[in-house]
Amino acid sequence: MSFDTERSSTDTLVSGDSSTRELVSGGLVALSFASFTVGLLALFQYLPADTPVAGTTVSTLLGAALTVVGTGVVVLGAASYGGLFETEPGHTGGLASAVFVGALWFAVGGLVGAQTLGLSTAWPVVALLTGGVGAAVALVAREDLGVTLSAGLFVLLSGLVVVTGLVGPGWRWGPENFSVVLTGAVGVPVIALFAGLVGAWTAARVYGGFGPQGRQTGAYVLVGTNAAGMLALLVSVVGFIAVRGFGPMTEGIKYGLFWGPWTWFNPPLVDTWVILEGPIVWFYWPFVMEGYTTVGSGIDGILPAIVGTVWLVVGAVALAVPLGVGAALFLTEYADEGRFTSLVEISTNGLWSTPSIVYGLFGLAFFVPRLGNTNSLLAGQLVLGFMLLPLVVITSRESLKSVPDEYRDASAALGVSKWETIKSVVLPASLPGVITGIILGIGRIAGETAPILLVTTSDPFPAEVAGVIQGGFRFTSAFPFVAVPDVNLVQSSSALPYQLFAVIGAGLGENLDFAWGTALVLLLVVMSFYAVGVASRIYFRRKLDQ
Amino acid sequence: MSVATRLGGLDRNSRIVGGIGTVLLTLTILSFLVAPALTGYLAVAFALFVAGSYVVDEENTARFLLFVTTTSTVLILAFITVYLLVNAVPVVREMGLYLLVGSDPFWDTSANTYSLVPMMWGTFVTTIIAALVAAPLGVAGAVFISEIAPGWAREIVKPAVEMLAGIPSIVYGFIGYTLINPFMQGELSLPDYGSLFVTGLVIGIMALPTVVSVAEDAIASVPDAMKNGAGALGATDWQTTTSVTLPAAFSGISAAVLLGVGRAVGETMAATVILGNVTNLPDPLMDVFGNTITLTSLIASQYGAASGLQFSALFAAGVVLFVTVMGFSIGSQLIERRMRQRLGGEQ
Amino acid sequence: MSETDVTQTGTDAPTTANDPQSETQTHTTAGETDERTQEEWTNFTFPGEPKLAVEDLDVYYGDDHALNGVSMDIPRESVTALIGPSGCGKSTFLRCLNRMNDRINAARIDGSVKLDGEEIYQEGVDLVELRKRVGMVFQAPNPFPKSIRDNIAYGPRKHGELNTGLVARLLGRDDSDEEEALVEQSLRQAALWDEVKDRLDDNALGLSGGQQQRLCIARCLAVGPEVILMDEPASALDPVATSKIEDLIEDLAEDYTVVVVTHSMQQAARISDQTAVFLTGGELVEYDDTDKIFENPESQRVEDYITGKFG
Questions:
Q1: Which residue of B has its CA nearest to C222?
Q2: What is the ipTM of this complex?
């Protein structure tokens, strides 16, 4: 920007120099986040609290860092109160902050009371007392003093407790009435996590110069951390399974280019075999191309589960998509708002929230007795189709609603009938949204375990693929000269999510690697549906916005 | 409008198509209920009739077919309700109120005594823990996506949350079983493999994406004009969010939390895999690190061996689940309807 | 300024071709003469220091050049109207004066705006302070879904100038009386008091459109601004409500500097002291006393626009 940045002393729009305050408080925010991160690593034992570092331990370092943050925040607050920094503190820290800080001190009082007085009737009294004082300080004192004092002292106290080893590697405490024993290996990281967040929040408030701006900075630090946490959760779940599952999943993959027979035949006159040879690309992936080996030392595979999932998804889609899109069309194009549409809406939303295990129970009571009295693919397809239905109705309806009325009017004005208009104008325009919804729905039902557990599966470690299609399409000598393959959906089958459940149920033991491999394949299948669905939704929305 | 006048409003053709079609379809469904062997023939008859009628009168047949598909959601919900209730009747008749309030022995298959108290307590505790995780974090995530995030961050976080929703529950259960359970037992000396605390935590994380997505929709539906109005008065963005946007979107956000809680109540596989599924209350009752069972994991862990009264008791658990979740669902819809009226209607 | 020339020549060319007699009036001669003339048309002088001094302001939305080198001084305690066809940049210009364009990520702003001689686009400007001094009323009424009282008191409460509620009462800092006075004063100034005094706790969304807009003006006044920016404040209202708003604007000019964007030339003529005409391409073509603009504009394009030949 090409603005004149010269400042005159009479400026009222521009606040005074704040670089020192921002530098110091920014440093404290960074230090707090460092403690938070190290605390996280320590909690999950990547960097245990008693790891020696440069002559001391992680635990002591964490304590020292928190002590610095706590002291720093209190000093900054006092400096602001003393007028050393230019800030805009409010009369009070605000009710929300006071409740937040009060809860912290309530916990401190409760824990200290419980540890020193035992979990007798006295601890709530101590907790309420400290909590009340903490909240009152934040509420009554001017913002810069109250908030930094109450929150800063909390951080300082946490730091001191850890740095002095009061809660250190050797610490153990089993609260009465809870079957849990807290140790230093968990206690120190948890303290670091909490105190780190509180320190970052308070320091950020100083960074923003208190007042509305300071509250905003403090809140954004917390909300931003939460968002980063969700990202980290996704990355760590997917990453962890990928790392652990990749080995088992890819074990024994063989591929290569061979010189082998393409085809061979026996010409009638020359009583000899003619063999045509050529290069053959050969690819063998035992984990997804084999069943579970019942004997011997071969690599266990999950082919039956993959095939089962494919059948289930195909059947569910074949059932739910026509029903769902049809219902969405009727609701948007034909029905008037009224009792009938509200009833359908309530039912659709109800079906959406019905727990999957309830669908399973329903399938068990309704379909299984009527379909050969056995667990079957068909029952699973029907039940999963019912689960998919509300998703298809809801997303298709949204997509149909976003088709502008002008399209319908234009078509109607040309004398085209309603159904013709729907077929030629409305459906094509809404297709991207409908398809996206279906893809996301498939992702959901492909990972669904509970209903198929009740209605489809039987063998936890199948060696063979369920033979749905028998015979194949062929010509025969008798009337009608063609034989269609037998399709038998009334038989049990495995499926990917069930396979994972079955391994856990059988006790992981030596099957642990098999389980990780199965989890990775399941995740890849489901997540690729989601990735395609989410990406296409973003793509079509962007196109629509233009 | 009464049914009669509505039918009268339709022309002759559509009445013929609708009449015959409805009869055939009803017969098909009825046959599946009483004589499944006949269903195939009747279904073929229905299909042939519809095909023929489509050739003759496309417009009315299409309309009839779409109407039939629309009734499917209502029918399915009705069937689920009826079949759950019918199968739950024997145990209700046998046990009466003991089912809901009975004390020790809670669940004894040899004595044929069934009380759902431990399961309801397990579901209640895990749901509370899950709600404590999912509600604040989920709403904060929604605020981040729709109000705070700069463009690039939104484009990362929003799809990431949607992907998070895609992780199958059995995968969460697997992680809880193989990683968190041993951790809790090793580092925190839990006596049992599995606890309500871990289950609630995992279920809360699983409900998180639902809360974020629905709450974000609600927040995004607050008109920009309102937010600009606050901005022009000199309110900071955070003040605008807390004092204008969030109150205006309050109903939508509560609906989001309710839906998330509903998801948590019905979550099955994570609970089944992580919990020990002991059919007793934890002792003492407040011990969230104790082991018990939820309504969902009861069904998933006992359906195989169950018969007779025990089988019926599983359906009773299903009814309790179903009723609870329906309550949340309908509640959230009522709230959302109120929000729409409030933001859109009164002007 | 070369872009300005191109646009202007382009627009005027057909007139010249069709009507040879108008040659004397048109200003098609390219080059320096033309530029100087245009500068003179927009160089409106008045006694005293300007409240707002805008210099060479450019705004881009992505590739779109929404405002093209606009310079104008706005006198204090008067009504300045900004008129022009839609898409001419008048609303963009208005939103630059309290930096509301900052809320649009894609906007890029170049140039200088001085409020009482102080640059509002320099680094470190406190937007809260700026918007307290330069208030804004929007095209469509946008009251918060809160009570009438809460709407009026919103700004002062958020700026920590009024403390009410439980905490304030506990701390003995309750400003309820001041708040009551401020609400009444603001509503009286906005000529709304008599209509709503008995239902201050009702939801503001229950008011009529015209009442809502006056409520928004009162809400803006409660913050204590020096300048009030209005973006077509009456375009969503019926004729009766419009005339009330217009009367109100004229009254406000006694104490405030009012800048109004309007698409209605009659409205500009009725309420404003001086008028600035923006034409396509985001340029300010002429700026002068309202009477002068409407009776005897210098620019042929402005005359065409006012008489309805162009725009």
A1: B233
A2: 0.90
User: How long, in residues, is chain A?
Assistant: 546
User: What is the torsional sign of CA B146, B149, B150, B151?
Assistant: negative
pLDDT at site B2: 44
**What's the length of chain B?**
347
**Residue A251: C-alpha distances to residues A247, A285, A300 (Å):** 6, 8, 10
pLDDT band, residue A545 (cuts 50/70/90) = low
Mutate to test the interface with B, among A222, A319, A354 (most CBs of B within 10 A): A354
Residues from chain A that touch C54, judged by Cβ atoms under 8 A, are none
Shortest distance, CA B154 to any CA of chain A (angstroms)? 10
The answer to whether the Cβ–Cβ distance between C126 and A91 falls below 8 Å is no
Domains and CATH numbers, chain B: 3-90 (no CATH), 107-344 (1.10.3720.10)
The candidate with the shortest Cα–Cα distance to B297, out of B135, B131, B175, B126, is B126
Kindly report, residue by residue over A448-507, the tens digit of the pLDDT.
Answer: 889 999 998 888 787 777 777 776 666 666 666 666 777 778 788 888 899 899 888 887
**Sheet order of strands, C118-119 included:** C64-74, C52-61, C107-115, C118-119
The DSSP H or E segment spanning A280 is strand A274-284
Following DSSP, what letter does each residue of A452-499 receive, concatenated? HHHHT---SS-SS----EES-SEE-SSTTSEEPPEE---S----HHHH
Q: Tell me the whole-structure pTM to 2 decimals.
A: 0.85
Are A390 and B149 inside 8 Å of each other by CB? no
Are B223 and C117 a contacting pair, CB within 8 Å? no
User: How confident is the model at residue B142, as a pLDDT?
Assistant: 95
Residue with tokens 């912290």: A104
The whole-angstrom separation of Cα A315 and Cα A145 is: 66
* CA separation for the pair A353, A359 (Å, rounded): 11
Nearest 5 degrees, angle CA A11-CA A14-CA A16?
95
Which residues in chain B have Cβ-Cβ distances shorter than 8 Å to A343? Answer: 74
pLDDT interval class at C3 (50, 70, 90): very low
Scan for tokens 């603009």, then name that residue: C293
Nearest to A525 by CA among A439, A443, A438, A437: A443
Q: What is the 3-state secondary structure (H, E, C) of B153-175?
A: HHHHHHHHHHHHHHCCHHHHHHH
Number of neighbouring beta carbons within 10 Å of residue B247: 16
Q: Specify the pairing of strand A172-173 against strand A182-183.
A: antiparallel
**Residue A449 is nearest to which of B148, B170, B237, comparing CB atoms?**
B170
Give the distance from residue B281's alpha carbon to the nearest chain A alpha carbon, in angstroms: 14
Q: Is the pLDDT of residue A9 over 50?
A: no
Q: Do C126 and A95 touch (CB under 8 A)?
A: no
Contact A227 B144 (CB under 8 A): yes
Window A:198-217, CB contacts with B under 8 Å: 212-213, 215-216
Q: Is A356 exposed, middle or buried (0-12, 13-18, 19+ CB in 10 A)?
A: buried
What is the average pLDDT across A502-517? 84
